[in-house]
Specification:
Low-confidence stretches: none
Structural class: alpha+beta
Distance between the termini: 37 Å
Strand order of the largest sheet: 1-2-3
Number of domains: 1
Bound molecules: zinc ion
Number of strands: 3
Length: 98
């Protein structure tokens, strides 16, 4: 086989992605970013299971706890999104364009 494929034109994209990964490696940045993408939570976080607004934010764990008793009373910013079950959260598809 010949030489390795040239990565030439992709270098700037790689740098951008690395910077983005560093940025989103900060959980507070992640939270802000994802909150901005949940307009339904603009006026307050709503329990995704029962739709209750009676929820408390657990700052240390960055989770919300619904005060209504039901399964899955604790939920994260990722609940109900494509990120929910993904160990690799910050794919290029989730990054702001530009
Ligand atoms: Zn609930």
């Amino acid at each position: 086989m010949g030489s390795a494929p040239c990565a030439g034109g992709k270098i700037s994209a790689i740098i951008t992605l690395q910077e983005a990964v560093l940025f989103y490696a900060d959980p507070d940045n992640c939270l802000d970013f994802l909150m901005a993408r949940r307009p339904e939570w603009k006026d307050g976080v709503v329990c995704p299971t029962r739709g209750s607004k009676n929820v408390a934010f657990l700052k240390s764990r960055r989770l919300w706890h619904c005060k209504t008793r039901h399964p899955k009373a604790q939920f994260s910013i990722k609940v109900g999104t494509i990120f929910e079950d993904s160990p690799i959260v910050w794919t290029s598809g989730s990054l702001p364009s530009g």
